[in-house]
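Data deposition worksheet. Section B asks for the primary sequence of the deposited chain exactly as it was used as input, without tags or linkers unless they were present during the calculation. Section C holds the resulting structure in token form. Section D is free text for depositor observations; keep each observation to a single sentence. Incomplete worksheets are returned to the depositor.
Section A, Depositor: J.P.
Section B:
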Amino acid sequence: MSPKLKKIRLALKWTGFYIPFTFYFLLFCIACGIGYAWLQSKAGIPDSAFKDIFSLLLRFSTGFCLIFLSTGFITVALPFVYFLMRRKSNDIDFSISTPSRTDKEQARQAINIHLHPVLKPLLGFVKIRLKYDDAHFSDKFSLVGRSDKKLFSTNLDGTYYWELPEIKEYRIDKAIIYFEDFFQFFSFALPLETSSEFHTYPLSRPSKTLNAFPRKTEETSMRIEELKRVEGELINYKNFESNDDVRRIVWKIYAKNKELVVRIPETIDPYASHMYLYPSFFSFFDVKDNEVIGIPFLNYYKTVCWSVYRQLVAKGFDVRYIADQDIPQNKLENDSEQVRYAISVSKWHSEKELRDFVKLKDASVVIISSLSDPEQVQQLLETSGNEISFVFIPLTEGLNKQHLGDWLQWLFVQREKDSMAVHKTNWSLSLLRLKIAKNEKALKQLLDAYERSSVLEKK
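Section C:
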């Protein structure tokens, strides 16, 4: 779609948000009009008492409907005018906060919203729509309110659980506030400028155990003392002295012999516990504007990258994550959260190739995808000298395979809108599908001959 058509489409969509009545109102008016015309034609015998009574009942019903609609209109118009006046005087407090997700929350991001002052329509609703990333909009939603014992309050506080399609950083630049009556016939909207940023995280998932080790080829004059557990016989000990660390006391020996002894720390190379992780987001193919590769494939790749990082950290290594693209500055609590943020905001790119990105002297683990160049991977395999562990993530595992039954359902059964089902269908029809499948096969053949490689497939 051309940029001009996109602008026109966005303008029409934006205008549609401010139509003051809803689709239900149109249906109600059409039904009332058809019903009135039909009843009017069945009024009975001309110039009879029945016709006069029936016409009176019709006028009464019409008047009742008008009163009913007028009441709904007024209950929405008054809070709307009040909010409009407060907005003109810059007296609106609107804030958005986004707490971090846990693995149990899966794809839903909690959005905490505070709005003051606002009057809720009598028996009606106050709803919100968020505009994010310049040209995208959320659905119109109501907040899951927090308990408020006040009978009358001008505060609107609550949470919206937003099922976001991508693992990335989102920027909210506008909110649309809707005032709706009980039957949702009228919907008056006002925009509010805001500025909020948050990012969705990749979640942990089970993955194959990796055989990866720190690099020990670097030379350094700096050395540290560290206790290392050794299976079997205990290593060197000495009697406890006043200046020794009590954490090094061997309590098992004390329980047997009533003697306080401590382990002697072993002097090791500090780089022996450092592990450099190189995940490559380089694409050998032109994947621009490909929604399947840009959303479900990228989400799957980020999720597995984070799982690999978590697995290495759990083994006790000090993992150094090396990004292959510029990462926005973000002050987070610890290194693990910073790595998670770096993975979240990473994108497919074609700037930094794999051979220019990976430093053979430092790398311990290199993560590649189905979009990697087989020739460059082969070059790294030949020059790494079996000192680097390669992790291959086949992106097509991010989608379940399309079966014949899925096609039959797509052709003959009307199903509820499912974004993953749409992605599966689009991928089956994509021109890149066969090319990437062939590339995956070539990469697997290269890595099968390499003793320190892993293919992480979806379980």
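Section D:
Residues 25 and 31 are 10 Å apart (CA to CA).
Confidence is low (pLDDT under 50) at residues 216-234, 267-271, 401-416.
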